## 1
Amino acid sequence: MPESNSDCPLCGQSNQCAMVAGLPATRCWCMTQPVAPAALQQLPPERRGLACICPECARPLPPMQQSLPI
Ligand SMILES: [Zn+2]
């Protein structure tokens, strides 16, 4: 059974990659949304460059909210 690259290596959800759906890569969400470098660093080396991550995991961490004035 061929390994599917349609799932996110980080969370296992569908990565919604346009190429997996048979669409041009230019239609992929990753062309318009920045991918967090921290998320890419968590990818297993054997899947890096093969499997896309999903939009949720690619989203940068929310800004720290600890510095709110009290
Ligand atoms: Zn994910």
Note: The mean pLDDT is 84.
## 2
Amino acid sequence: MKNVEEAVTTFFIDYFLSGRGPYDRAPFAWKKEANMELIDISEELEELGTKMIREHEDLNWIAGAGIDIGYQYSSKPKTSNGKIVYADCYKVPDRLKAYVQHNFIITFYEPNTASLRDDQKEILMYHELLHVGMKETKEGPKYHIVHHDIEDFERVIKQYGVDWAR
Ligand SMILES: [Zn+2]
């Protein structure tokens, strides 16, 4: 990734010094592409998610409720407030329903998860699936993200020990 950044920087310097302008098109398109987040729909993650839903009593309901989850890898080395983000769970907004079949999308950030062991990936997947929430309403099911609370962490720690997040 660093080489790409360097190549882009070199390109910018060369471009501006060469006076080849106009500067409003090529360099910005190229820069954007160099930083592009690549997404890979993952059968491996789908199998892992399905396995976690089947094996964990507190996740069984997800299969029963027919919730549709998309699983993907991202090429982005995501961080938030200086901390590594291994994965996240995203609720597809209602207004995208016509375009996206999934109710939720779980993303594993490939550069951050590449070195995790299989059992750690399982814990991570279990953790992300705990974010899936649904409420039955008169107009049908409404989906939401279940946010972290102490109870959540206790549940994870009880099953996997305190080192689960590493
Ligand atoms: Zn989380």
Note: The beta strands are 39-41, 69-74, 79-80, 83-84, 87-91, 104-109, 132-137, 140-145.
